[in-house]
């Protein structure tokens, strides 16, 4: 019935609740960090439930492809639309119709509201990567709703 | 892959986050009320996505049976284990293995922790009933983990 939308409803409520008591710019930054942290732990937990053979990825690029395909389908019932890399540890994952931004009108009007709908998912990606043994920095940007780019930077050790 | 557990992971994080800054008994009561409110709005939203013919229930008991079967399966991938009523507006819905309590050890040890894992679901039931045109009061009780009883009281108008 409605199980596929349950996550989206709950995410919306979570964002609304964190912003309900928003005490200005400092509070906003903390709320973003709280959302990112929740996403991280959910991503870690999801990562831990992957089949064992998934955890034996050898190539970084394979792990990123796996996130774009299997993880995205599990969470959003669709695949990421494109994946690009500079082959130096930076990956850009683009979703042309990101589900958590869809409830917002398209265009530029609500663009400044976008970051709070992206923080959880940045954390989710970072958490799943962490469980797969990759430390990363994940940020998101929106040029025009509902297109969204996630940038994953993996520092070379 | 992992989509069925996504809701449970997110719920766990939400509870943890609300309790992380817990300022004593007054704060706990407010956190419970926040969770119940989030559940209510998610329940309402789920209710609005039901097929139209579902909204044409005539009998109160049919609505309750629907919650125990379809709504529970949509959210928890299982049916409620039993439904009892005094035929005067009070219904007791029992889940012998409530998924949101399963991560806790069974027995009496963590019984006092249980209420925070039930508030969201009480709201969920109240919200779905509200969308179906029924005002109610929903409470939950746990005698031994992970058995849980939800009591729905529908005031006679």
What key phrases describe this protein's structure?
157 residues; 4 helices; homodimer
Give a structural overview.
Chain A is of the alpha+beta class and 157 residues long. In chain A, 46% of the residues lie in helices and 13% in strands. Chain A has 4 helices and 4 strands. A 4-stranded antiparallel sheet of chain A has the order 1-2-4-3, covered by helices on one side. In chain A, a hairpin with a 4-residue loop joins strand 1 (82-85) and strand 2. The longest helix of chain A has 24 residues, at 25-48.
Strand content of chain A: 5-15%
Unreliable spans of chain A are none
Order of helices and strands of chain A: HHHEEHEE
Strand neighbour order, sheet with most strands of chain A: 1-2-4-3
Distance, first to last CA of chain A: 46 Å
List the helices and strands and how they pair.
The structure is a homodimer of 157-residue chains.
Chain A: H1 3-20, H2 25-48, H3 60-76, E1 82-85, E2 90-95, H4 119-131, E3 137-141, E4 148-153
Antiparallel strand pairs in A: 1-2, 2-4, 3-4
Helix pairs in contact in A: 2-4
Summarize the structure.
The structure is a homodimer. Chain A has helices spanning about 5-20, 25-50, 60-75, 120-130, and strands at about 80-85, 90-95, 135-140, 150-155.
